[in-house]
Structures are given as C-alpha cells and as structure tokens.
Amino acid sequence: MTFVQVIDYETTRFDEMNALIDRWAEQSSGRRTATHTMIGQDREARNHYVDMVEFASYEEAMKNSQLPETDRMFQQMVALCEGMPKFMNLDVVRDEHLNKQLAHRVFQEAAMEGNMSVLDECFASNYIDHDVSKEESTVIGRDAMRSDMETWRAAFDMTFEPTAQLAEGDLVTTVWNWRGTHNKGPFMGVAPTGKTYEMSGSTTFRCLGGEIVEGWWHYNPGALQRQMGGTGTPYGT
C-alpha cells in the first residue's frame, strides 16, 4: 500500500530549506526509498509550507527514515523552521489520476471492446492527432480517431496491453504491446491471413477539461507490414 508522509512547517528561510533537500537527495542517492516529493506553499501565509513525500509502502518509508542522511537532514530542517514541524503519516486508500482513466477507456473500451461512443466522451471535437504511420502528420477531429480504430478492428481481433503508464501535468503516456489476429478483413492491401502479429509502441495524450485534446502515436507500422508481406500503408494513403 502506498504511504505518504506529510510535513507541515513554517520557515522564513525556504531557500536554505530547498538547498538542504537537494543535498539530501544527492547524498542519499542509491539508498533512499522515497519515490515522489512535492512541496506546497500556503497562498494566505507565505511562510507556511507542506512537504508530501511518497513511498511504495510504510516499510519502505521506515527504511528511508533510518538512513543517516535522513536523520541529519531532519536535524538541520528543524533548525531552519519556526517551531517544530508537524508530521502526518498516511496510508493511501484511494489513488486516481483522472487523465489516466481517460487513456484507459480509449484502449480498453474503444480499441478492444469496440464501443466507439467512448470516443465522443473522451476526445474533444477538435482533437489533434499525430500518427507516424500517416503521410499527413496532423489530423483534426475525433472522427479521424474513430475511422482509424474501425479500420484496425475491421481487420483484427486485437488487444492492447499497457506495460507502463506515466502521468505528469496534462500529459499521459502509455507504453503498450499490441497483438492482433488477422482474421476479419483486408489490411494494408493484404487479405486476412489468419496469423497473429505483435507490435509495441507508445501513445501520449494531452488532456484539458476532462477531454483528450491532442495525441501522439509512436510505433513501427512498417514492421507489421513486413510481417504481413504487404506493400500498402495502414490507411491506404
């Protein structure tokens, strides 16, 4: 279970505090177990700060606290604070990244399950698509995404298996493995072969207002084309 330690403190010497955290990160490299840190400054009380430090588990946090570098940093941190910092230890019981959920719906519900109405719910009407397989580098509109998915689904029984996903700011990147059995219809000028093909790639979506507004697809359609023995391109361009 993910564990988060919250440190609440006041200081008029934040520049020194910031430098202290940088030194700790450098000195504990290779041994620290913290996975993510974030510092917030109170807009109504500018000397009030809250640090949030994330760990994979409570046990990993305890390992981190036992490092001599961590103990030394704590003593120096207290000296920079106005009063004693307050600590809160939290077991994370719900952790959702809403933009990740958008990406998941595109792969699971639309691409694999064929529910094309999901595209209207997830993509902005003026969605901008960038796809390395196309001669036209930029396509505008969610209808282009619907057409692309219908083309692939008309040819293959297919799955997308996400192997890694990273969200930062308004961007979500999904690394995936695609597997498709060519048993439905022609693709890239090749009649159904009955064979199963695999391909890996990644997709980055930019999300605003609960919608996907831009996407970048990176994969190698030429490798799939060579496996199939075809001479065309995915979309007949």
The biggest sheet, with number of strands, parallel, antiparallel or mixed sense and barrel status, is:
6 strands, mixed
**Assembly state here?**
single chain
Structural class: alpha+beta
Q: Report the uncertain regions.
A: none
| Beta-strand proportion | 35-45%
Number of helices: 7
The residue fraction in helices comes out at 25-40%
Radius of gyration: 24 Å
- Largest sheet, spatial ordering of strands: 6-5-10-9-8-7
Q: From N to C, what is the helix and strand string?
A: EHEEHHEHHEEHEEEEH
Shape: elongated
Q: How many beta-strand elements? A: 10
| First-residue to last-residue Cα separation | 49 Å
Indicate the mean pLDDT: 91
Could you outline the blueprint of secondary structure elements for this entry?
Elements: E1 3-10, H1 14-27, E2 34-41, E3 48-55, H2 58-65, H3 68-80, E4 86-91, H4 98-112, H5 117-122, E5 123-131, E6 138-140, H6 142-155, E7 156-168, E8 171-182, E9 196-208, E10 211-219, H7 221-228
